[in-house]
Amino acid sequence: MEPFHLTATGYNLNYLPEYIALRHGFFREQGLDVSVNIPTPWDGVLDALADGTADMALGGIWVPSMYRDRVQHYTVFAQIANRCPLAVLRRGPDGAEGFQLGDMVGKTVLMKSGGGASVGLFFKMLLREHGLDPRTIDYIQDLDGVMLGNLFEGGMGDYYVTDYLSALAMAARNTEVSIAMEMVTQGDIPWSVYYRETATITPAIRDAQRRFCVALGQGIDWVLEHDAESFRDELAELFPNVPVETVVSVTNSFRRNGMWTSTSVPRAAFDRWQQGLCDARLVKEPLAYETIVDNGPAAAQR
């Protein structure tokens, strides 16, 4: 059995197919002994790649993009999350009815940033895509998610952007707030990907990546083939700190709305995100797909 160590930026519901692949032995069937750690702070994933203690990192593609030609070259070889897993909370009931992003102009939006820049990057990109200037909204985003959640429930701000699981849990326990938008419905984007330092990739590593993609693809297929209600006990074990009804609901929403599709990074979604990163000044110009994505391991597993 070949050790294959993953360092991840977090533990999230949008990584569910990976957890299923681990629990159901799909990686072991491919001869891979996959282990996982989550460093604190999250950018320790880059240290683990640099010192060779990790074979791959899982996180946002914005990191390999902004590091390119500045600090380090990374190659992305697979995707797990094909959609943004965030939600917008607002004050009052029935938040989704009649809500438009333009309603947020002139208001204050809380956005967590402790786990990286993805939340603000995606939200402001979405505003620009809808013809709205992000500068017309005030932001509080330099605090962690737990603190911002408590402050929002206590009365700070008008809207709160956080992960969908946390948002639905908050709305379930607090009738004074509601879900205004599920961002999983807002189009394809390579939200979470697997990558490695380009210079360290060998034919043997690439073969292990291919086998990893085979197992991960089986995990994706398994989740898509099973209504979340049918494996609620497993979800309860994976996410014990959230009411299982909430986890089941979000999982099925993700299943319906294209969160998980395949291990390949879609080209159009990549181009969309690159434009967002360029507009945010993380890259000077949108990167070409082949610059940082090697779709070979994912394509070979089909």
UniProtKB/TrEMBL annotation:
GO terms for biological process: thiamine biosynthetic process; thiamine diphosphate biosynthetic process. Gene3D superfamilies: Periplasmic binding protein-like II (3.40.190.10). Pfam families: NMT1. Keywords: Iron, Metal-binding, Pyridoxal phosphate, Thiamine biosynthesis, Transferase. The keyword Cell division does not apply. Pathway: Cofactor biosynthesis; thiamine diphosphate biosynthesis. Residues 12-229 form the SsuA/THI5-like domain. GO terms for molecular function: metal ion binding; transferase activity. Its cofactor is Fe cation. It comes from the Eukaryota. SUPFAM superfamilies: Periplasmic binding protein-like II. It catalyses: N(6)-(pyridoxal phosphate)-L-lysyl-[4-amino-5-hydroxymethyl-2-methylpyrimidine phosphate synthase] + L-histidyl-[4-amino-5-hydroxymethyl-2-methylpyrimidine phosphate synthase] + 2 Fe(3+) + 4 H2O = L-lysyl-[4-amino-5-hydroxymethyl-2-methylpyrimidine phosphate synthase] + (2S)-2-amino-5-hydroxy-4-oxopentanoyl-[4-amino-5-hydroxymethyl-2-methylpyrimidine phosphate synthase] + 4-amino-2-methyl-5-(phosphooxymethyl)pyrimidine + 3-oxopropanoate + 2 Fe(2+) + 2 H(+). InterPro entries: NMT1/THI5, SsuA/THI5. Homodimer. Responsible for the formation of the pyrimidine heterocycle in the thiamine biosynthesis pathway. Catalyzes the formation of hydroxymethylpyrimidine phosphate (HMP-P) from histidine and pyridoxal phosphate (PLP). The protein uses PLP and the active site histidine to form HMP-P, generating an inactive enzyme. The enzyme can only undergo a single turnover, which suggests it is a suicide enzyme. Belongs to the NMT1/THI5 family. This is 4-amino-5-hydroxymethyl-2-methylpyrimidine phosphate synthase. It comes from Penicilliopsis zonata CBS 506.65. The lineage of its organism: Eukaryota, Fungi, Dikarya, Ascomycota, Pezizomycotina.
